[in-house]
Design goal:
The protein is of the alpha/beta class. Helices cover 51% and strands 12% of the residues. It is elongated and about 65 Å long.
Length: 324
């Protein structure tokens, strides 16, 4: 690893730790209180540990899975002291998430595109207010910084603010935005974007979509139409459907995920606004429950405050474990 690679890795670690500070403080203060005066992991200890996970918005089903793993580990190892708890939790949570994450095998670098198609098309979905357009702008910046030619499509034609906001982020990232007037057919915008991308040898296209959830059938039909029209230009588009969720909403994010997973073929998740919440545990719960990889996490408002999600680094930061 060269000097600049090391510097970049340390900077990302610092951003992650700072972004998860509220979640980490809440979790560790409760853990410190739990561990005080105890030296073994028994049933009473596990009951209190369950409360800690639930209050961190990990979710009931995922919390039960984690506790079952801890019980099995204690049973196998015969004795596990509380001093070893954080390392044990880290091992078991990371192993649990890795078990269903087939994307791990790709071994791509951060913001590296898979080979085999050009342009690579990402359709971004999510309700209004979760940071969807902001995430698109940050993605555009990162892909451009990685050396790719990027184009954005403003297919959220339902709100004038959405088109304007994407324009602003396009300017910040230094990438073109394809748009039409308010109320235009979203599928037509997607078609124009992909046509322009092919004509201009663009590497990655990111399509914004409307954030309405009041009518699931209408949402499903609209997203299906956008996909079908895109495939007239790029036959296998979209290559990724990225669902953006607001991590600060805790269990509401689970409900949004259920709705969108039912409406379209989501294969990636981005969880935003983790820097402003103590509910960082929701990342673990969502990743586990939906068997869909969390691809990105948002840790601040800055254009560089979007990171590719790495399970081990995330869990270590959340549990306050020093990494080298």
């Amino acid at each position: 690893m060269g000097f600049f690679d090391f510097f970049s890795k340390e900077k990302k670690k610092e951003t992650l730790d700072k972004g998860l500070e509220k979640s980490k403080q809440g979790f560790l203060s409760k853990m410190t209180h739990l561990i005080a005066g105890k030296d073994t992991i028994d049933d009473d200890f596990l009951d209190e540990l369950e409360d800690i996970f639930l209050s961190s918005d990990v979710g009931v089903e995922t919390t039960v899975k984690i506790l079952d793993r801890i019980k099995e580990r204690v049973k196998k190892d015969k004795y596990v002291g509380t001093s070893e708890l954080n390392e044990l939790l880290c091992d078991e949570i990371v192993d649990m998430l890795t078990a269903h994450d087939a994307k791990d095998s790709e071994e791509l670098k951060d913001f590296e595109l898979p080979e085999g198609h050009k342009p690579h098309v990402i359709m971004v979905v999510g309700v209004n207010g979760v940071g969807k357009t902001t995430t698109i702008g940050k993605l555009a910046h990162n892909y451009k910084a990685a050396g790719y030619k990027v184009m954005l499509g403003a297919a959220d034609t339902f709100r004038a603010a959405a088109i304007e906001q994407l324009d602003v982020w396009g300017e910040r990232a230094g990438v073109p935005v394809i748009k039409q007037k308010l109320g235009s057919d979203p599928a037509a915008v997607a078609y124009d974007t992909l046509s322009s991308a092919k004509a201009n040898d663009v590497d990655v296209v990111i399509i914004d979509t409307a954030g309405r959830l009041h009518n699931k059938l209408g949402l499903m039909n609209e997203l299906t139409k956008i996909k079908n029209v895109m495939q007239k230009v790029v036959p296998d588009a979209p290559h990724d459907v990225l669902l953006v969720l607001d991590g600060s909403t805790g269990q509401n994010a689970f409900e949004q995920a259920k709705q969108f997973v039912a409406a379209t073929s989501v294969n990636q998740l981005a969880i935003t606004k983790l820097d402003g919440t103590a509910k960082g545990g929701v990342v673990i719960g969502i990743s586990d429950q939906f068997k869909i990889p969390v691809k990105y996490i948002g840790l601040g408002e800055g254009i560089t405050d979007l990171q590719v999600f790495h399970k081990k680094e995330f869990v270590q930061s959340l549990l306050g474990i020093n990494r080298h």
